[in-house]
Amino acid sequence: MKLHQLRALVCIHETGSLQDASAVLHLTQSALSRAIKELESELGITLLVRSNKGMKLTEYGQRMLGHARQALESVRRARQEIEDMKGLVVSEITIGVTPVTALLHPLKQALVEFQQLYPQATLRVLEMRPTQLLQHLRDGLLDFALTSQLPASTVGLDWQPLCRVKGAVVVRKDHPLRHVKSLRLLQQAQWISVDPLTDSQSQFNQLFEGSALARPRKVFECTAMNLAIKLLIDSNVVMTMSEAALGHDLVGLSDMSKYLHKVEIQEPVPDYFVNLVCVNRSFLTKTAGQLFSMLQARLL
């Protein structure tokens, strides 16, 4: 198994055709086809098949894709680490955050301090849902992530628990159910889930599971956080969010607590578990490791 074969597999999948992949990689189509055939022959499986929409991954190919991306990213980081030590390149670091962890004040402080210490470093901060963060980590697209949710399984990833953020059930200020005291009385209301409903570990699902209640039937799945909050303010929906978010400027509003009301239910609302996560901390580049340590020190 060779790097050029893995690179060919990833590029053909991302472009959808041999022709486009050959243009991106500056190789002939026959060279790309040969690389894939050699990899398939070595593994004894079929990775790609032609369809009316171009080249499509088989089930084996889909499984292989994640490993290929991770291997290529590991090689890139190893090369960057060596060149960085030699002073030949500028470090590139990509981290992921969730809407909950993006509001943590220590995160902002650590990023400002890091930029002052490493002004030449290229830093990217990507916001996404917790399940997306873990998939990006496994695919090698992130150096590490600051997540707010524990998955069903932590196998294959390096987890560093940091702190908890209190959760809350929230409605708009004049919602007719704003004064109810039981989650049961909110079951018939229209809810918004900012995580996929299939995510059993989400705050929304854990809220009802922890109270031994069935999930509401009327649920609007909306993973666009700003849109979800605007719907929360302008309609009679219910949502879970962090208590910290109530005092933040999220969608052009100076103070969210002026527009939203925390429902004081008797059932416990799950906390958000803040963790630093990477595939393997020993694999982080020197500068990425420094930022990881700075966040760890500020949030523990």
What does this structure look like?
- The chain is of the alpha/beta class and 300 residues long.
- It has 3 domains: 3-70, Arc Repressor Mutant, subunit A (Orthogonal Bundle); 90-164 and 274-299, 3-Layer(aba) Sandwich (D-Maltodextrin-Binding Protein, domain 2), CATH 3.40.190.10; 167-270, D-Maltodextrin-Binding Protein, domain 2 (3-Layer(aba) Sandwich).
- It contains 9 helices and 12 strands.
- The strands form 3 sheets. It has a 5-stranded mixed sheet with strand order 4-3-5-12-6, sandwiched between helices.
- It is globular.
- The model has no long low-confidence stretch (mean pLDDT 89).
List the helices and strands and how they pair.
Blueprint: H1 3-15, H2 18-25, H3 29-43, E1 48-51, E2 54-57, H4 59-85, E3 92-97, H5 105-117, E4 122-127, H6 130-138, E5 144-147, E6 158-165, E7 167-172, E8 190-193, H7 203-210, E9 219-221, H8 225-234, E10 237-242, E11 260-263, E12 272-278, H9 286-299
Parallel strand pairs: 3-4, 3-5, 8-9, 8-10
Antiparallel strand pairs: 1-2, 5-12, 6-12, 7-10, 7-11
Q: How is the largest sheet built, in terms of strand order?
A: 4-3-5-12-6
How would a crystallographer describe the biggest sheet? 5 strands, mixed
The total number of structural domains is 3
User: Approximately how much beta-strand content do the residues carry?
Assistant: 15-25%
Q: Which architecture of the largest domain would the CATH scheme give at its second level?
A: 3-Layer(aba) Sandwich
Order of helices and strands: HHHEEHEHEHEEEEHEHEEEH
Distance between the termini: 42 Å
Structural class from helices and strands? alpha/beta
What would the CATH topology of the largest domain be? Answer: D-Maltodextrin-Binding Protein, domain 2
Number of helices: 9
- The unreliable regions are none
CATH homologous superfamily (4th level) name of the largest domain: Periplasmic binding protein-like II
Alpha-carbon Rg, integer: 23 Å
The whole-number mean of residue pLDDT values reads 89
Helix fraction bin: 25-40%
Number of strands: 12
